[in-house]
Specification:
This protein is an alpha+beta fold and 400 residues long. It has a domain at 2-65. 19% of the residues lie in helices and 35% in strands. It is built from seven helices and 25 strands. It has helices at 2-24, 27-34, 39-45, 50-56, 59-70, 177-184, 318-327; strands spanning 75-80, 89-93, 103-105, 115-120, 123-127, 132-135, 142-144, 157-163, 168-176, 196-202, 209-214, 217-218, 225-227, 230-236, 245-250, 256-258, 271-277, 280-287, 291-297, 306-313, 340-345, 351-355, 359-364, 369-373, 382-386. Strands 12, 13, 14, 15 and 16 form a five-stranded antiparallel β-sheet that branches. The longest helix is centred in the first third of the chain and has 23 residues, at 2-24.
Length: 400
């Protein structure tokens, strides 16, 4: 009994300073202070008292905090791809990286046994064999989307985006017609079929809408990137060809359009992946696996505005070298097709690279140096998406 009384007195003492501070400072100042805290600190602050819990849920704070975090160095969600712990999520925050600090943690509900598909405005799009979900890994709030009827959920691309004009979220499901027809007509030659079927769900709507067929085959290994209210992918006109197209999807008009691509090499197969750096659409191109060029579209939609901004030389992370030595007698054979992609660029100008979904490397373009990033909790095989940790809820869109 005495121990219980002591514990209760600690809670009361903790509540009093918070209540006194909230009573003395204008709410505008309080929101401005809180909006600069990491998402991990805000989530913990909800436990202080009822007044703080109510304040942390204030839509104005949610928007201010998201805007503040979006201006910082990026954060990531990594999902382990190993069987154990399969589907485990890890959050990594580089907002204090200028001071050498990296925050790495597992959200409380990070073991959800679901596949991580996409991230938008602090929300994650995930799915399992039963359905598709939108969730916030920090607030633990989630919704299940209407069932996608007629087709198995594992086929094709699943993308998640936000239309800033109408303040609405949309999920886009792209199904591959070759796979669907192959199931019913096994004699069909897949290489000659280039049709993909597009379905869209506006969050809040009870049904998916079929937008019909498009003549593109979306490259599975590449993720979408959103610029100017449009989703972007690398596609091919045929499944088994190297020709690469840059395709956009306008979330407002729901129309697909080809985007002019840079003339970065003679062989069109050199296009490797897309990215967004400083708000601009970028493409990475590889030349005989010797270097990675990063081309930036300075003025959206203008072919003449493509500029080669970075040349990243060949580098094999120590982690991959060690794994190769354990597997092969001639370890460098395993690096002939070394896959590397740019994840993001920090405010310092340094670039974070991901190698074979197994390790992250910090590249300094000014000095041409590479440094492997190690921090607690990083899986040895993972999927990574850029993610802004936020208090956002699906029914309260961010006001930009």
């Amino acid at each position: 009994m005495e121990k219980a009384i002591m514990e209760k007195s600690k809670v009361v003492k903790t509540d009093q300073p918070a209540a006194n501070m909230m009573g003395r400072l204008p709410q505008e100042i309080i929101l401005r202070i809180l909006s600069r805290l990491p998402i991990t600190s805000l989530v913990q602050s909800k436990l202080v008292c009822r007044a703080w819990r109510s304040l942390i849920r204030d839509p104005l704070l949610v928007s201010q905090h998201f805007s503040q975090m979006a201006d910082n160095d990026p954060s990531f969600i990594l999902q382990s791809l190993r069987r154990a712990p399969y589907d485990q999520l890890y959050f990594t925050d580089f907002s204090d990286f200028s001071e050498g600090k990296v925050i790495s943690m597992k959200p409380d509900n990070s073991s959800m046994l679901m596949s991580l598909e996409d991230s938008c405005n602090g929300l994650l799009c995930m799915r399992d064999s039963r359905g598709i979900y939108i969730c916030n890994p920090f607030t633990r709030l989630s919704i299940e989307l209407p069932k996608f009827i007629n087709y198995p959920p594992e086929l094709g691309h699943l993308e998640f985006g936000f239309n800033p004009t109408k303040k609405e979220y949309k999920v886009i499901q792209i199904l591959y017609r070759p796979q669907l027809e192959k199931r019913d007509r096994p004699y069909v030659n897949e290489s000659t079929l280039v049709q993909s079927e597009v379905h869209v769900l506006t969050i809040g709507s009870p049904v998916w809408r079929n937008l019909g067929m498009i003549s593109y085959h979306f490259i599975r290994q590449t993720s979408k990137f959103m610029v100017k209210g449009r989703l972007h992918w690398l596609c091919r006109p045929k499944k088994n060809t190297w020709a690469t197209l840059l395709i956009s999807f306008d979330l407002e008009t729901e129309q697909f359009q080809e985007v002019p691509k840079p003339n970065c090499c003679d062989l069109v197969k050199c296009f490797q992946h897309l990215m967004v750096l400083r708000g601009c659409l970028c493409v990475g191109s590889s030349h005989n696996n010797k270097e990675l060029e990063v081309w930036v579209m300075k003025e959206y939609g203008m072919k003449e505005s493509w500029v080669k901004e970075f040349n990243i030389g060949f580098y094999v992370p120590q982690t991959l070298q060690q794994k190769a030595f354990r597997r092969l007698s001639y370890p460098w054979v395993g690096f002939r097709n070394l896959f590397v992609q740019v994840v993001c660029i920090l405010k310092s100008g340094q670039i974070i690279l991901e190698y074979r979904s197994q390790t992250l490397v910090l590249y300094d373009p000014q000095h041409g140096t590479f440094k492997e990033l190690t921090f607690p909790g990083i899986p040895d095989w993972f999927k990574i998406v850029v993610h802004i940790g936020s208090l956002n809820c699906i029914d309260t869109p961010i006001n930009f």
